[in-house]
Design goal:
By secondary structure, the protein is mainly α. The chain contains four helices and no strands. The protein has a domain at 2-48.
Length: 92
């Protein structure tokens, strides 16, 4: 019995914290004004992680570049190079 009452107290305290945070969030969103000072508004959204980044960081792998160069190049492999490549593929 004693353990369940401690759990209830902790649970109620957490609920109280969540409610306070929610109320603070609602009041902050209602007070936010994009017409006069959008810098403050966007800065707050960025801090909270809700704003979309203005540009996405590209992730390009070296194999992607190599494949593109290979597809766009007009260099034809020699016969011996083709044979080596085929042997290597068969060995795997």
């Amino acid at each position: 019995m004693r353990q369940s009452s401690k759990f209830r107290i902790k649970h109620n305290a957490k609920l109280g914290d969540v409610r306070r945070k929610r109320d603070r969030w609602i009041s902050a969103m209602e007070e936010m004004d994009y017409t006069h000072s959008s810098r403050k508004s966007w800065a707050l959204l960025r801090k909270l992680g809700a704003a979309q980044p203005s540009r996405k960081v590209g992730c390009v792998a070296a194999s992607d570049i190599a494949n593109l160069l290979f597809r766009t190049s007009n260099i034809k492999p020699k016969k011996c190079e083709k044979q080596k490549r085929e042997k290597n593929l068969l060995n795997y």
